[in-house]
Amino acid sequence: MHTCNAPRLDARLAAAYDFVRPGHAAADIGCDHGKLSAALAGSGRCPLVLACDLRPGPLEKARMTCAPYGDKVQCRLGSGLSVLEPGEVDDIIIAGMGAETIIEILEAAPWVFDARYNLVLVPATKHSILRRWLARRGFALRAETLCQAAGRWYAVMNAQYTGAAREPDGLFCLTGLTNGQPGCSEYYAVQNEKLKKYRLGLPEGTERDAVGELIAELDALAAR
Ligand SMILES: C[S@@+](CC[C@H](N)C(=O)[O-])C[C@H]1O[C@@H](n2cnc3c(N)ncnc32)[C@H](O)[C@@H]1O
What we know:
The chain is an alpha/beta fold. The protein folds into two domains: 11-166, Vaccinia Virus protein VP39 (Rossmann fold), CATH 3.40.50.150; 183-224. The protein has eight helices and seven strands. The chain has helices at 11-19, 35-42, 56-66, 99-107, 127-136, 170-175, 184-200, 206-223, and strands at 26-29, 49-53, 73-77, 91-97, 118-123, 139-149, 152-161. Strands 3-2-1-4-5-7-6 form a seven-stranded mixed β-sheet, sandwiched between helices. The longest helix is centred in the C-terminal third of the chain and has 18 residues, at 206-223. Bound molecules: S-adenosylmethionine. The site of S-adenosylmethionine (SAM) has 18 residues, from strand 2, strand 4 and helix 4. S-adenosylmethionine is lined by residues 13, 29-32, 52-55, 58, 79-80, 95-97, 101, 105, 122. One of its GO terms (molecular function) is methyltransferase activity. InterPro entries: SAM-dependent_MTases_sf. It comes from Gemmiger formicilis. Keywords: Methyltransferase, Transferase.
């Protein structure tokens, strides 16, 4: 947990901070307000932080937040990982975007499919889609922290490329490594509500039946 004069982090960004490896240069992609970049640089956890955003307005906010940390934070304007040279940082954080955007950003940078990079991913939505993509594309989920911020559940994911691509089962996509963590029953109940709505839109048949089975499995996990 960070302890410095940098802005306070919500539970989600605090969990992301904890997955960043001390002593490594990091990039905060979609940094917006710059709070995480400031905490990583201000605490001394990272010798260099690249605070990056697609839009000038958010990047300006980050520039102001990170101003006290001088050249320990560099601000870069542009999409995803296109603003980085391969190998420039070791740890890459992408927080506060939907799973599909995170996936697009990673797919657009083939160099990130390499075990040297420590990925910290905080999808704002569709956690299960990101877990499935990671497994299919050969990334191992090393750790995951379930947390609540502003009344919503977040899964903060720490992933590393291994090259061992696999087809994950549905329950893994929905739960990842969260089983047994504080709040997991509530998280599963929320996930299951979404799954139930999705199932309602499916025609009678195999997928509808399979989703029904998944709902029952998740209900059983939530009830433990
Ligand atoms: C909701 S904010 C998240 C801020 C912070 N990372 C957090 O989790 O609190 C999302 C930020 O991502 C930026 N963004 C969206 N798509 C992006 C992309 N492809 N590359 C870089 N930044 C992007 C937006 O401009 C916005 O500032």
